[in-house]
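Issue 218. Parser rejects a valid record. Input:
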Amino acid sequence: MTFERQPNLTRFTIQTFTDAPELQIPIFLIFLLGYLIIILGNLTIFVVIVSEASLHTPMYLFLMKLSLLDISCASNILPNMLHMLLTQHKTISFVGCITQVYFFISLTCTEVLLLGAMAYDRYLAICHPLHYFMLMSFRHCALLIMAAFTIGFIDPMGHAVFISKLYFCASHLIDHFFCDVSPLLKLSCSDTSRVEMLTFVEGTFIVFPNFLLTLISYIFIIATILKIKSAEGRQKAFSTCTSHLTCVIMFYGTILCLYMRPTSSYSPKQDKFFALLYVVLVPMLNPVIYSLKNQDVKCALKKLKNKIICK
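Output the parser choked on:
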């Protein structure tokens, strides 16, 4: 097997979905529509929260940051993929590939931490309503958001450094629609154990604790809601959590299927499917879920629409 030393490796080729020319434009149009829906939906949520004073609470500040993360994650991948589908120029520079990997992991880690903070916020709101604004003040909310973004963007630096030092085989064809850790490790001819160990450590110290925090929070939330005597009170309490819970299930479902397994079990078709769910479907559905399931957001949307019509 031939090795190509790192200084000589300048570009990778992205497989995307198919080489059939007649399918490129239809696939391009489908993903362009999906990207526009992601931008429009999440930007609408962001604008609604900023413009409506009644939504300036920790819960909606977290949601606003989640919308920004969804836009950023999609924008890290989809514009480049759309360009490849349209022009059939499917190469990406080595530096561009490592940069895409770094931002993908950064945004994913940040979302994990943010969803954990949102679960804790809902736990305080439901289980400790009288002390909520003392325990989750705007200062505490800002600190949690700052910590999520700081840890999220520092943590993947090790991945970027270790992957950039790998040797790659003669084939530089990435069987995916973007640069991701698993397909890159599959192309490497050198020892990838450090990167795999780093992914395992990341899962152990970031993903798993936040997943556990979310799980425990909802156990306490459900137990508290069941103690509420009136059916209307139970429904009102649970309605504040259903949107977040739905997003958490979709998010962790795709992330666990993508990364919580050894590289030896890597399957290109399976990874493309789950990556599509995470990169496209989840950011598309998040605004819909939060707007349809949340009465406050729906009221704020109506107010914003009336303001625009009146102008």
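Fixed in the parser; the record now loads. The chain has eleven helices and five strands.
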